[in-house]
Structure formats: structure tokens, C-alpha cells
Design a protein that fits this description.
The chain is α+β, with helices and mostly antiparallel strands. The chain has helices spanning 8-11, 16-27, 46-55, 57-60, 67-72, 77-80, 83-99, 105-124, 133-148, 158-171, 176-181, 195-219, 228-236, 246-275, 277-290, 306-319, 352-355, 398-415; strands spanning 30-35, 38-44, 328-329, 334-336, 339-341, 346-350, 416-420, 431-433, 437-439, 444-448. A hairpin with a 3-residue loop joins β8 (431-433) and β9 (437-439). Belongs to the cytochrome P450 family. One of its GO terms (biological process) is organic acid metabolic process.
Length: 452
């Protein structure tokens, strides 16, 4: 262990996901590293994750002052705050999203509308190779725009594309996990880790969202809430804890949480499906059996599409989009089994340890949707994975996320045959780890099967 830097050399040995797996194999399901004078405790495995973040949630739900939380989110709004401020914003977020249609038919209509725009973009490619992550990111962002800003944008809108490109670049920055764990890296000369660039992007986003907020303030009808910004303005008068400083960060985190993870999961699904044509064919057979007409799938079809659901669950498992979620902080000394986690420690939920648990998922690196199909052919076992985290900090937008994944992925497979850019040559299944684990850029061909 080095003075000040502590166990930093261990983190320089490669991918943090692979490093954590090696440390878990050596030291067990709870291990700690000393980084920059702080103890960073990694929690692995379903049993310990639930023991720490569910049963002992009162001691492990705070956020520490790490780079992303302190400098990007400025310790504001739902994701970054603690205590009463966090409860105020979490309650508002859940209520506002419910008011805007989460879990209701009106939200499904928005997603279905955007799905049709997205499918038209794929049709317009005429079977030529395209970087599919671009239209996916735009489509999912548009759904959040309709919720947050009350409008959607054309896929070629220059300002809209600039906005989502900044969000995408910021959240996919591979240096953020390292700076979070060792904050001194942000102060190295020459901005080697791009910390200044990240902060500049944050200021740019805040400026954009402040402009939308100002426009809403000038046009709001308190009796007719149009979107999330209106909900915030209206609720501010009732709850002083919703401050003007929190406002643009609240809009940003809605974009980040509602766009990045979902768009990347859909992109991973395309990668896995083009590498597994037999899975595509079985999905499509199930879809045509359930929906023999030309109409696209709806949520009412979900119960009759167990294999499609299994494909989505297996994509979430193997893609492992948020392997470490965001750091938590211990607010007291707590004994977990024989381990004492000290007050002030950074506590990292290693969700990857569940997704790649060999006992739960034998041959865990294989894409196999049948893991989620029982002997009766029914979908089961979704609770074995935790793609939306767990405990008090779990994702409040889970219902929308599940709806988007189901409608986008099933609609794609029903309408198109997904093929690699070059027959027989497939993209790598390795990704890049920023806040989320994202696939490396690749192209695919979408060959239309039948006209809707």
C-alpha cells in the first residue's frame, strides 16, 4: 500500500469490473481498498447487497462527496442529496412522474409514438449499415424531452443533437469512476483525466436547461401542467426545499437517468441479437403467433410473450449497464456478518457480482435467454438481477424503463431482420465503462421483413 495513493496500483491493472471479480475471488464478498485516505468498501453478491442496501438502508443510503456527485451534480436534486433534502426531492420526483403518466396508458402512447418514428428511421436506412446507437439515443431522449420539456424534436434537429451528444459524452466518460475513487486525479496538470472538460459540459447543460425553465416560467398555466418543469415550478410554491439551484440539476438527472441506461441497453440488445440469429427467429415466431396482424406490440401483449421478456432480461443481465451504480456512504459503524464497515467509508454496490454469479447463471458470459424460462415455458426469475439498483436509491423511473425496453426491442424484431455490417463478422461484446457500461460503436443492417 502506497502513502496517500493506497491501493491505487490495483485499480490500474485493467477493467474495474474484472478487477473487482479477482478481488472478490481472493478476499470474499466484502472487501475494501484504501484510496486517497478513504476506505472504499465493495459489496458483492445478492445476499450481502440486500443485507447492506435494503435491510440496513438507513445506514447506507447517503451519497459521499465524490467528483460526479459534488462537481457534476453539485450535490443537488435526487441523485446527489442526503437527508431531508433527498426525501423532499425523491417524493417530488415520484409524484411528478406519476402525474405525468408513469404507469398509465398515456405514457405508453408516448412511447409507442416515438417507437414508430424510430422504426421509420431504420426503414429509411434501406438495409444499409448504420450506427444504430445514434437513432436509439435520439428516440429515447425524445421520450424524456416530452416528459421534461413538453415537446419532442426531429431526429435531424441540430440543437437537439448537440444537447444529447453532450449528455452522452459526459455520462460515457471512462475517467469518471477513477476520479470518483481518487479525487486527486482531477487536479493533475494538463487535465489528463478530462475533469475540466466534464465540468464545462455540466455548465453548458445547466445553461440550456435554465433557458427552458425561464421559458416555462413565462408561459405556465398553474392549472394545466405540461411537463416536469411545470410540475417543479408549481410544487416550488408548496415546498421550499425545491430550490432554484436544484432545478436545472433535477432536469439534467431526469435526462441522464432516463436516456443513457435505456438507450445503451437497447443498443446492447441489437448487438446480442445480430450475434444470435436463432434468438431473433424465436422472438419473431412468438411475436407473429401472438400478433399475426401488422400492428406493433403493445404492453397488453407482454404476458403472451415470455421468450421476448426473457431476451430483454438476459440482455439486462449480460449487458450489465450499471455494474457499480453510484457510491454510497456509511453514516455509522455497522457490522455486516463478521465485517465492520466504518462510518465515512465509501460503499460500492457491485451489481456486476449478481449479473455474473456463476451459481445463479452458469456459463455466465453466454447469451442465453432460456435462463429466464421455466419448464412450463413461462418467464420467471427476473428478481435474480438488479439492473435498476436496490434499496432506497433504486431507480424511480423503472416502470418507464421496462416499458421502453419491451416496446422498442419487440417492435424492432417484429419489423426487421437484424444483420451484421458484414456477413459473418460480428462486433466485440466488450464495452467501455463510464457511469454506465456501454458497447463500443458498431454498425448493423436492418432489413425490413414485412411492411406494417
Amino acid at each position: 500500500m502506497l502513502p496517500l495513493l493506497g491501493n491505487l496500483p490495483i485499480l490500474l491493472q485493467g477493467n474495474l469490473i474484472e478487477i473487482s471479480e479477482k478481488l472478490k475471488a481472493t478476499y470474499g464478498s466484502i472487501f475494501s481498498l484504501s484510496l486517497g485516505g478513504k476506505w472504499v468498501v465493495f459489496i458483492n453478491g445478492n445476499e450481502y447487497l440486500r443485507e447492506v442496501f435494503v435491510k440496513n438502508a438507513e445506514f447506507f443510503s447517503d451519497r459521499p462527496k465524490v467528483f460526479f456527485i459534488d462537481k457534476v451534480l453539485e450535490s443537488k436534486a435526487v441523485t446527489a442529496q442526503n437527508g431531508l433534502e433527498w426525501k423532499t426531492h425523491r417524493t417530488f420526483m415520484v409524484t411528478a412522474l406519476r402525474n405525468l403518466g408513469f404507469g398509465k396508458k398515456s405514457m405508453e402512447s408516448k412511447v409507442l409514438e416515438e417507437t414508430q418514428h424510430f422504426l421509420r428511421v431504420l426503414s429509411d436506412s434501406n438495409g444499409d449499415p448504420i450506427n444504430v446507437s445514434d437513432p436509439i439515443y435520439v428516440a429515447v431522449s425524445n421520450i424524456i424531452c416530452s416528459i421534461a420539456l413538453g415537446e419532442r424534436f426531429d431526429y435531424n434537429d441540430v440543437e437537439f443533437k448537440k444537447l444529447i451528444n453532450v449528455i452522452n459524452e459526459l455520462l460515457s466518460n471512462q475517467n469518471i469512476p477513477a476520479i470518483n475513487l481518487l479525487p486527486v486525479l482531477q487536479y493533475l496538470p494538463g487535465d489528463i483525466f478530462g475533469a475540466k472538460r466534464i465540468i464545462q459540459q455540466t455548465h453548458l447543460l445547466k445553461k440550456v436547461f435554465k433557458r427552458y425553465i425561464a421559458e416555462h416560467i413565462n408561459t405556465i398555466d398553474p392549472g394545466n401542467s405540461r411537463d416536469f418543469i411545470d410540475e417543479y415550478i408549481i410544487e416550488q410554491k408548496r415546498k421550499p426545499g425545491l430550490t432554484d439551484d436544484d432545478f436545472p440539476i433535477a432536469v439534467f438527472e431526469l435526462f441522464g437517468a432516463g436516456t443513457d441506461t435505456i438507450s445503451n441497453t437497447i443498443t446492447w440488445s441489437v448487438l446480442y441479437l445480430l450475434k444470435n440469429p436463432d434468438v431473433q427467429d424465436r422472438m419473431r415466431d412468438e411475436l407473429l403467433c401472438t400478433i399475426p396482424t401488422d400492428r406493433p406490440p403493445t404492453m397488453a401483449d407482454k404476458l403472451n410473450l415470455p421468450f421476448c421478456e426473457a431476451v430483454i432480461a438476459e440482455t439486462q443481465r449480460l449487458a450489465n449497464i450499471l455494474p457499480f451504480a453510484l457510491p454510497h456512504a456509511a453514516t455509522e459503524d455497522v457490522m455486516i456478518d463478521k465485517f465492520k464497515i466504518l462510518k465515512g467509508s465509501f460503499v460500492i454496490p457491485n451489481l456486476s457480482s449478481v449479473a455474473h454469479d456463476e451459481e445463479l447463471f452458469p456459463d455466465h458470459l453466454k447469451f442465453d435467454p432460456l435462463r429466464f424460462i421455466d419448464k412450463q415455458g413461462k418467464f420467471y426469475g427476473q428478481e435474480r438481477i438488479v439492473p435498476f439498483s436496490l434499496g432506497k436509491r433504486s431507480c424511480p423511473g423503472e416502470s418507464l424503463a421496462r416499458m421502453e425496453l419491451f416496446l422498442f426491442i419487440t417492435s424492432m424484431v417484429k419489423k426487421f431482420h437484424i444483420l451484421p455490417e458484414i456477413d459473418g463478422i460480428f462486433p466485440s461484446s466488450k464495452g467501455q465503462l463510464g457511469i454506465a457500461y456501454v458497447p463500443n460503436p458498431f454498425k448493423a443492417r436492418f432489413v425490413e421483413r414485412n411492411k406494417y
